[in-house]
Prior knowledge:
Two copies of one chain form a homodimer.
Chain A: H1 2-11, H2 18-22, H3 30-36, H4 39-59, H5 67-84, H6 86-92, H7 102-121, H8 131-150, H9 157-173, H10 178-189
The structure holds a DNA duplex (30 and 30 nucleotides).
Amino acid sequence: xxxxxxxxxxxxxxxxxxxxxxxxxxxxxxxxxxxxxxxxxxxxxxxxxxxxxxxxxxxxxxxxxxxxxxxxxxxxxxxxxxxxxxxxxxxxxxxxxxxxxxxxxxxxxxxxxxxxxxxxxxxxxxxxxxxxxxxxxxxxxxxxxxxxxxxxxxxxxxxxxxxxxxxxxxxxxxxxxxxxxxxxxxxxxxxxxxxxxxxxxxxxxxxx
Amino acid sequence: xxxxxxxxxxxxxxxxxxxxxxxxxxxxxxxxxxxxxxxxxxxxxxxxxxxxxxxxxxxxxxxxxxxxxxxxxxxxxxxxxxxxxxxxxxxxxxxxxxxxxxxxxxxxxxxxxxxxxxxxxxxxxxxxxxxxxxxxxxxxxxxxxxxxxxxxxxxxxxxxxxxxxxxxxxxxxxxxxxxxxxxxxxxxxxxxxxxxxxxxxxxxxxxx
DNA sequence: ACCCTATCCATAGCAGCGCCATGTATCGTT
DNA sequence: AACGATACATGGCGCTGCTATGGATAGGGT
Lengths: 208, 208
């Protein structure tokens, strides 16, 4: 499939051009137009693929009786996804509002909202802590951190140095006890080993 | 100057191409090569211009005897800068690690570190709260939020809905009292009216 | 006053890009 | 078996960033 091939080229840091994409597949450039309605359509499909992979990864995070731990685990899975294919992650959020099926992205976000709501019902978060708001802030914080790392502004080590603390900050702000929060986050991150991306990403505007 | 012109075209959402850039200036395409060493060099200069404008904006934020308020005010100025020219902000962080003068970006960051350090010395933050770490987390959180808004993932209203709360979360995590923190943030945001960008940004990969 | 040198820029043309009009082949339907 | 629809290969268009070449201008040394 051309979308997978595009994702591979993205991961290999090859420029994803129309001709390079179809070369070797036996297909011609027209295939991109009949199936994706041109390059913008292909990029849209690639973004969709990125969100599909993310959803798959978040689906695998198991639900425990500690919802704050689950939130931390979801965050760790999210960062793992971003590091697994940094170029794909950047493409995902280059125009994340333009997807074929926005519901898939919403479904991933729903994992966060559900966990936040469970934390509220378990009296870890305040009763008036809006789960959607907590999820949004948690997500935005993680997105910002990982983006700064992927663009080379912050070093790779910044992820492990700051991600758990930032998660804790949001959870405590939502009402969780600081000590319990720290313990849950530690537990949610247990076994997660973030892997440094293969090469520093130094795209320029105009690159893919 | 070609850099200002590029920034204007960016703000007008015109595609910034080499020929369109020099058209009307009397200059020819070669000027970009003698002065900027090609388009990548021009983009680097545009990013630098973006960080210069940011630094100027942060310089104007006054220092008071409430360092947490100052942190909030710096954050508000940062978001104001991002909204003043969303396209420029996106270009800035497209390859923010590649600048002619990285010290300028560091100087802006230094404002945050200095304010965090003053908060620590004023016993608002814990004594072991590393000012650089606090500044980094605060920055990452704000960057993530504003990026999600600029890419159209979150609505404009998300800024005012979440930015102060996210700031508070970081400050409290650094040791500040929740009530005092909320009051300082409110004070730092006083008078700041974020303006919705002119049009929703719907770039695609390959666009500028 | 002269020329030599260095810098800058205008011209024109290159290869590559996304895109699409056209003609051909292949498939499923009746 | 004949038809209609869909998918694809070809070739070329206009655009992009880029650069080799040559002309113009200014500054300094003799």
